[in-house]
Amino acid sequence: MAAELDALRDQIDEVDKQMVELLARRLALVEQVGEVKSEHGLPIYVPDREASMLASRRREAEKQGVPPQLIEDILRRTMRESYASEKDSGFKCLNPELRSVVVVGGNGQLGRVFCRMFSLSGYEVKVLGSQDWQKADEMLKDAGLVVVTVPIHLTQGVIEQLGRLPKDCILCDLTSIKSQPLNTMLKAHTGPVVGLHPMFGPDVSSLAKQVIVYCDGRGEEYYQWLLEQFKIWGASLCHIDASEHDHGMTLIQALRHFTSFAYGLHLSKEGPNLDTLLQLSSPIYRLELAMVGRLFAQDPNLYGDIILSSQENIDMIKRFHQRFGEALQLLDNHDKDQFVMQFEQVSDWFGDYSKQFMSESQNLLKQANDAIHRSG
């Protein structure tokens, strides 16, 4: 039996070696694709091409008796690596006549991401850090684009401190709230203004499929090239009114961050053994625990700024607290019938999204489970 298994394993090892060689060949071809895209100004992420290719490979897999989801999982992981490789080829510069790009706060994590992307696109990039304000007038007097990426609580003050910019200079910010910074930019600068919110962190390997929200300020026709440049980087754009954006962020960011903070705080006070919790957790619970723990691996000042950035956030969290108390009342009353009724009401509110989210989460959980190594 051992000899038979060894022979089969040797064959598997040989197939795996061939797979590695094929992946290396594919990545080399992707690098060539990136060079062509860079030359012609094509985006690194083309949704229709990706969807068509995956559908075709799924059909081919079925004919070979290979589970279609298996080949899709492999290709999606490979494409993620491919997008990162294409980035290294650089990008076409859509506005070669643009004067310098000044990134205020460019030494920060997100600032460095945008400095690199602009540099890869051939723009002259200057960084205005907290220690450089004595050189600010000199750096800003001939700027074609000024990007403000500093902590939320400093953003408005920094914008007001910029002084007079060239009239045709584009002024934008990367803050996760939009109404207040946008209004401050409109008051501080008479030229083109746009509010931006990159919906990703500084640890992304590529901007492919990443979302950048933009809120119009003034002179939309003058910054269209900038939005197109983002698309070439692979980003998807979301156009929204600033106040609508901020209301959405109250639920997406402030409330979620606060509930994660409260759950983590509760866990720390209860003092369970995390190793034991992980051993007992199925992939869904492990993933939920990971998302809470992830928060506490980051800068508390950032999350404090996000949560405390508006009274609307605090009011929303208070309403959540009130509804949490109402839900607790069901437990105090041991009222299962009322619990089921409210559960079904919420299910009706989610509608078809419930099934969509179930499908999406199942795929995430499979990947999470694959990454777990359990001994014994």
Which labels suit this protein?
single chain, 376 residues, alpha/beta, seven-stranded mixed β-sheet, 15 helices, 10% strand, globular, prephenate dehydrogenase (NADP+) activity, NAD+ binding, PDH_N, oxidoreductase, prephenate dehydrogenase (NAD+) activity
Describe the structure.
The chain is an alpha/beta fold and 376 residues long. 62% of the residues lie in helices and 10% in strands. It is built from 15 helices and seven strands. The chain has helices at residues 2-40, 47-63, 68-87, 109-120, 136-140, 152-161, 179-188, 224-232, 242-270, 274-280, 283-295, 300-307, 311-332, 336-350, 353-370, and strands spanning 100-104, 125-128, 143-148, 170-173, 193-198, 211-218, 236-239. A seven-stranded mixed beta sheet has the order 2-1-3-4-5-6-7, with helices on both faces. Helix 4 (109-120) links the parallel strand 1 and strand 2. Helix 1 (2-40) packs across helix 3 (68-87), helix 6 packs parallel to helix 7 and helix 9 packs across helix 13. The longest helix has 39 residues, at 2-40. It is globular, with a radius of gyration of 25 Å. The two termini are 23 Å apart. The mean pLDDT is 92. Its main location: cytoplasm. Keywords: Amino-acid biosynthesis, Aromatic amino acid biosynthesis, Cytoplasm, Isomerase, Multifunctional enzyme, NAD, Oxidoreductase, Tyrosine biosynthesis. GO terms for molecular function: chorismate mutase activity; NAD+ binding; prephenate dehydrogenase (NAD+) activity; prephenate dehydrogenase (NADP+) activity. It catalyses: chorismate = prephenate; prephenate + NAD(+) = 3-(4-hydroxyphenyl)pyruvate + CO2 + NADH. InterPro entries: 6-PGluconate_DH-like_C_sf, Chor_mut/prephenate_DH_T, Chorismate_II_sf, CM_dom_sf, CM_II_prokaryot, CM_T, NAD(P)-bd_dom_sf, PDH_C.
